[in-house]
């Protein structure tokens, strides 16, 4: 079946602009995660949802970052007043709750460049 | 806080040589997962280990979970150029669904 999709794949924003990144998880996956990955680094957790509930947003770096998943499927990560340090790849992953099975399936990511 | 360390950070091998990456956690993990990320790609789930002392094999890849559930290893036998990429371990502590990620081991294979 279809995997996790993300759009746009690439986004260039001028410093101060707002951006919205979209994630379509695998159908039926209950959990959804957002990560930030800088060049040469591992994924850094931002936030996760179980259905429409945002259960953990401890990784969001500032109040300029906001995520939502209003109907428990598609999610949007919004970054307001972008800064150069926001430049990174933003990865979305989804997971099917199945006991201790926590494997996550990642989308291709959105590469954000703030100029 | 909870941390997962991975060593080595980088390794280059000649095609056909073996490769091992090690993952150590400061806390007991309920499970350990391994992911592979090709250059320019996204992490792809490889395997999950749950039981103490568990060993799983996928063709040339062997995964181990330590007895204390605080360390893990990934061993690749007779590397191929298709093995190039960064290998990440990640684990859950208790019932926390937030994965704790290692920094990854970047593998280069010379043909």
Write out key terms for the chains shown.
heterodimer, A: mainly beta, seven-stranded mixed sheet, four-stranded antiparallel sheet, 11 strands, B: 111 residues, mainly beta, six-stranded mixed sheet
Note down, in words, how this protein is organized.
Chain A is an all-beta fold. Chain A has strands spanning 5-7, 10-13, 19-24, 31-37, 44-50, 53-56, 65-68, 75-79, 88-95, 105-106, 110-114. In chain A, the strands form two sheets. In chain A, strands 2, 4, 5, 6, 9, 10 and 11 form a seven-stranded mixed beta sheet that branches. Chain A has a four-stranded antiparallel beta sheet with strand order 1-3-8-7, with no helix packed on it. In chain A, β7 (65-68) and β8 form a beta hairpin. Chain A starts with a strand and ends with a strand. Chain B is an all-beta fold. Chain B contains no helices and eleven strands. In chain B, the strands form two sheets. In chain B, strands 2, 4, 5, 9, 10 and 11 form a six-stranded mixed beta sheet that branches. In chain B, strands 1-3-8-7-6 form a five-stranded antiparallel beta sheet, with no helix packed on it. In chain B, β6 (55-58) and β7 form a beta hairpin. The radius of gyration of chain B is 13 Å and the shape is globular. Classes of the chains: A mainly beta (115), B mainly beta (111). The interface between A and B is medium-sized, with 24 and 19 residues.
Map the helices and strands.
The complex is a heterodimer of chains A (115) and B (111).
Chain A: E1 5-7, E2 10-13, E3 19-24, E4 31-37, E5 44-50, E6 53-56, E7 65-68, E8 75-79, E9 88-95, E10 105-106, E11 110-114
Parallel strand pairs in A: 2-11
Antiparallel strand pairs in A: 1-3, 3-8, 4-5, 4-9, 5-6, 7-8, 9-10, 9-11
Chain B: E1 4-7, E2 10-14, E3 19-25, E4 31-37, E5 44-49, E6 55-58, E7 61-65, E8 71-76, E9 85-92, E10 100-101, E11 105-110
Parallel strand pairs in B: 2-11
Antiparallel strand pairs in B: 1-3, 3-8, 4-5, 4-9, 6-7, 7-8, 9-10, 9-11
């Amino acid at each position: 079946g279809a995997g996790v999709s993300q759009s746009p794949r690439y986004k260039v924003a001028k410093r101060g602009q707002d951006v919205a990144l979209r994630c379509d998880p695998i159908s039926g996956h209950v959990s959804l995660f957002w990560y930030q990955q800088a060049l040469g680094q591992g994924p850094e957790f931002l936030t996760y949802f179980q259905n429409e509930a945002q259960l953990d947003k401890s990784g969001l770096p500032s109040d300029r970052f906001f995520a939502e998943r209003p109907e428990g499927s598609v999610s949007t990560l919004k970054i307001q007043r972008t800064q150069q340090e926001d430049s990174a790849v933003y990865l979305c992953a989804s997971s099917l709750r199945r006991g201790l099975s926590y494997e996550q399936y990642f989308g291709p990511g959105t590469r954000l460049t703030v100029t | 806080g909870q941390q997962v360390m991975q060593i080595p950070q980088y390794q280059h091998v000649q095609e056909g040589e073996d490769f091992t990456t090690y993952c150590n956690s400061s806390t007991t993990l309920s499970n350990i997962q391994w992911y592979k990320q090709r250059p320019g790609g996204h992490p792809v789930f490889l395997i999950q280990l749950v039981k103490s002392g568990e060993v799983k094999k996928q063709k040339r890849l062997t995964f181990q979970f330590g007895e204390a559930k605080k360390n893990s290893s990934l061993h690749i036998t007779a590397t191929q150029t298709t093995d190039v990429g960064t290998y990440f371990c990640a684990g859950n502590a208790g019932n926390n669904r937030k994965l704790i990620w290692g920094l990854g081991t970047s593998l280069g294979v010379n043909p």
